[in-house]
Amino acid sequence: MESEQGPEKTPTRPSTSKVASQTDTLKSTPHNRGSAVRSDHIAHTGVQVSDIRPWIARDVERAQVCNADALLDLLLQRLSEQNPRASPDQQPPPAKELRDRCLAAVLPICNGEPIKNGANSITTSAIKTHLQNYANLLIEKDRYKPWVSAFNIALEALRHTAVDGLPAAKEADGEQIIFQQNDPAEMRQQHRGRETRRKPDVVIVPTKISEKADPKPPQNPNGIGTRKPKRSTWLEYALNYAVHKPSLSMEWKDILSVVEFKSKRHKLQGPPASYPIQGYEAPQGIYLSTDALRLLDPPEDAEAVDPAVTSVTAPTASSSKAPTTSAISSSKAKAKRALSSLIGTSKSTRSEPLRRSSRKSQPTSKAIANAENDRAISERSGLKRKREEGATGETSSKRGKVQPQKRTKKPVATVQTAIYSAEMLAAHLGTNHLINLIVLDSMVWVWLYDRQNPIQCSGIDFIQDLPRFLVLLFCLQRLSPENWGRNTLFKRVGGSGSESALVVKAGDVDLTLHEDTAERVTHFGVNGRSTNLFRVTSPQLEEKHPGKEMVAKVFWPEDSRSSEAAILDKVAELAKGNPNIENHVPELLFWYKFENSTAELRRALGIANPENGSRTLYILVFRKLSPITELSGAEFLSAWWDCVL
Predict the structure, then answer these.
(1) What is the rounded CA–CA span in Å between residue 173 and residue 179?
(2) Which positions ≥6 away from 342 have C-beta within 8 Å?
(3) Where are the alpha helices (DSSP H) in 323-408?
(4) What pLDDT does residue 333 have?
(5) Non-local CB neighbours of 277 within 8 Å, separated by 6+ positions
(6) How far is the C-alpha of 65 from the C-alpha of 73, rounded, in Å?
(7) Whole-prediction pTM
């Protein structure tokens, strides 16, 4: 009996462990799991982008973990490398020393002291006011505005905060990063003829991108006496405009980071009277678990879990075997017990025992009222996901009648953020890594995504441990595009749409990857080789190989595998002098390996076995071939027979 597969089930794949044990020379791809093995089938009949979701969920389950301070230390080290030095021999300060300097520098902001901005000053006491408003609200979407307001004020104050040994923030307003509310605005993208529509809650973008999207405050219904708020300064724009949804859709290629929110619908403990500098102490269960998050939105026939539980369990290594129904039930039961055991670590203002299913005991009138209230709140806060994953989420352009999409339960925050990451990776070819945030009540987790595995950093309480979160914002505000994970050797030219192209500097060779062709093959997923194919032109290669049309293969193979270029060189060597093989193998014209192994990030974060499944970006340029399906009659039979031979 086949195991059930769907949004709440992780899909199966053939096990490679038995085969690998039979030979030491096997050069397969043992880490080609999750979305890596499914996304290339999007263009096939019946395969929709939404079908990739359970495979992305598997990628999330395999996430690696690291300490939040390890991430801060890495970001501060990279900022220090960006900072101009007095001499080339000058060594940057140790990361811990930089972190301590930053914690001391942000403390006045946390405690509401005015920060000088030329002749004016920034009223940082408003940060606590917005955080208290956030703590009092229950519904997810109602929390966007105070959260965005609080941390845009913090960004403006951090902009005028100097730390010895670290670079200053960008001077131009348009280049400053800003938190911009996006929900309920849609962001669209094409994947091999399929369109996706997503609604991330909040995004981090350069201010010029926010302004281009033209967020507008809601107008008075009768239109009388309405007046646009002031926007003469960056902060006025951030407080009056960035807290509203854009009137024009933003593009995934312009997004630096997404912030996904989740609420357990109860009041939170407000900010303290003052903030001291304190060491980071990760409380029990500080890593997000997908199973635990699923329990926050249980099906109607499942046991209810008290939303006051604020701690969640760390993920465990997933098995390569197919999960059975009993195994899934056991996993959920374990997650429930883990949540139950963590009630005592909650910082919420409520701490009640778990409510049991009505099948076991008769609920009280108060429990029924609470359930009805929770259901009403859930209906209000869940409308976005229902629309996003519903009937019009993905369509096929100009393909006649579109098959209806299956309505599925909304993905949990970890999977939702991974789906957004897949959109960003598809939009940013060559991206080394992404930095995204998940907010669950007063906790925020940083997630890093690349082609190896997602990495989850331990959580930070941005209300009770505000100084540490402001150090993170200090870093993000000053990161160069390279440290945001962008590959600056890939430069987009020609704008968007059919005119766009990517110019790539591959050593001494300039390549132009054309995005205006139906033959282009793209990838949607988080992990894996991420193979993309383009029509390519190059003045250097055209001079060396005149008259040959070319295609480029851009992909992330595993470092442990034999190089594809080396394999093809060996094939060409063996084919020499054999008329049945010579001129019947792919003609490799050029290849280039980038120096950006995914192992480097894990090594810097102190993650064990960083080379296990690591990948590096390659570009291979081939002579363009036509598919055999373009032939017919005797020509087709002759070519087919050659393939058989």
Answers:
(1) 14
(2) 284, 285, 309, 311, 312, 313
(3) 325-341, 365-381, 383-388
(4) 54
(5) 100, 103, 104, 107, 467
(6) 15
(7) 0.78
